[in-house]
User: What shape does this take?
Amino acid sequence: MAYFLQQLINGLTLGSIYGLIAIGYTMVYGIIGMINFAHGEIYMIGAFISIIAFLVLGLAGITYVPLALAIVLLITMFFTSIYGWAVERIAYRPLRGSFRLAPLISAIGMSIFLQNYVQIFQGARVKPMPPLVQGGFTIFESGGFAVRLSYLQLLIILLTLVLMIGFTTLIAATPLGRAQRACEQDMRMAALLGVDVDRVISLTFVMGAALAAVAGLMVTLYYGVVDFFIGFLAGVKAFTAAVLGGIGSLPGAMLGGILIGLIEAFWSGYLSVEYKDVSVFVVLILVLVFCPTGLLGRPEVEKV
Amino acid sequence: MTAASGLVSGQVARPPALWAPLLKDAVLAALVAVLLALPLVGLQTYDIGGGALGIRTHFDWVALAGATVFGGRLALRVVDRLYRSREQPGSMVLARLAIWGSRQILPITLVGIGFAVALPFLPFSSRYLIDLGTTVLIYVMLGWGLNVVVGLAGLLDLGYVAFYAVGAYTFGLLAQDLGFTFWEALPFSGLVAASFGIILGFPVLRLRGDYLAIVTLGFGEIIRIVLLNWAPVTGGPNGIGEIPRPSFFGLPFARSAPEGVSTFHQFFGLEFSPDHRVIFLYFVILAMALVTNLFTLRIRKLPIGRAWEALREDEVACRALGINPTTVKLSAFAIGAMFGGFAGCFFATRQGFISPESFTFIESATILAIVVLGGMGSQLGVVLAAILLVSLPEFGRAFAEFRMLIFGAAMVGVMVWRPRGLIAHREPTLRLGPQRATR
Assistant: This one.
């Protein structure tokens, strides 16, 4: 029971991170109908920028942890958003109206490019990060096994919750959110009614990248190591989360993220650690084959 | 933006400002480049020992990035403005080259094949060069195999390396456990890889193009992880070693042979040389690649090949015409997988050792990059892209380091500027009557 609860907490933490990345996939897919394959790399870049920002702050002498965290959060979100914006501007915008696989191939090219870019300029070695937020609660103990919720896990889950609430409000109650929903329903009609579609799409990428940056920061803190290759697997997992929740649906992305986090935690807790990545791929294939609309998605009508 | 500014200046009857908007645009682009480069290029992390990181600054590189983007963007926009109504010179040259190439396809092919056959016997050729040529040909064969799936059938396969791995491990296991030789194992490698293609393809080929891509990626990773962890059978991370080398119709390439078997050099009365085997391997893969190409060229003219291309262009129309998309896609998938398996078998015998490390996603991405850069569906383009990809690292360490960076950027560039590939000029395989009459 205690072991189960511990895995639940670990899974929720992991799931929050996946959920934040998954939102980027699902929003982009909702609006322009493409899989932003480079999104995992954006998350990886977020993780790198956060580690660099921590180092710079350390050199500048800011050591009060909450302040450092807040500053790093803002810096990481800012610079990563520019990456998100630039990727859309360079690799996807010129391809509107090209043949169907063009954006996906371009995205794969972008993904390879970003991975090697970071590898060349930051080195291929794993980057360690000393733990910043330590300690935690012991929820209860049974049979010598203590169920622990660390402050960091609490921080990750709470921050995700806050971001989700803020984000849902943004989509539901602001002019930008309205424009996004309009573009999602019918891009051409929205353009006719005076919505600047290019701007909305750009901002969607910026928002997705900002959330991925938060996820990158969290992973840096949580695992304490970052390398240039983490984007690939995290990207696939987050994409699986988006598909599982129903691609195009925001609550679906969050739900899917948490489910994937739980599946991964329980799989490695009870079955085998070696095959934990296989579990995610199997879920992806099963969902796509048997239930391609996901849990909360709308069925897609194929148009000629 | 240019159209809008032209409109405004037209209304006030003023000659359009030529340089100001261009400069502004270039400055903005440079600013973005500086912001992008600042954290990741300008601040470089490095180990200072004891598990801690230090930071080196490289603001000169950031400035360089800004200046490069400024100049590049300006040049691009100037060219754009000068040639707004006409086609741009660069792409025009490439298009001409492509059209010329497609007209002269037979001579080019013959010269190419002639050169490939003669390569080992040319005066400047060396063992190193032949080895390089063998690597190029492996990628050419993989590219041609993947081209069946991506170029002809229009299915994006991101896990092609899985079939390559299946082919290699089929041979590895058959040799290890049952003592198969290369030639005995070759058909099985293709067969097993094709079966894997069918097993994977059957449930997932109903999916839309981009979902299919992700699922194939997942499949490729599953195969790799299983190979890595199923240690009792596959040897895990240590892989399989001592895979037998191929023989020349039963004549082994060795200095001395066991009793009753004569070696290649003894049989032909030659001086023993380790180069014989290298040259032989080169010719084996050359023949395999050419068979792949011939097969593809022929099958394009058969109903099944036509169905692949039709399906790529319009799936709904194909269904309306009574083509069963699933079977047609499945056949393309299986045939592509089969060639991947053959190539894998050859890879195993050439290396003599295989491990899961050779079959990562990067390898899939590399093969896909070759196909995309060569122009999807173009056989000649694949050869050129493979030569480029394999020989880039030979020009120096910088090229080796930047190889995948360049290829990633090139994939984006090709999609943006020439989505049909760098020098591809794809004629429809079939034309209706009247057009033929006018020729």
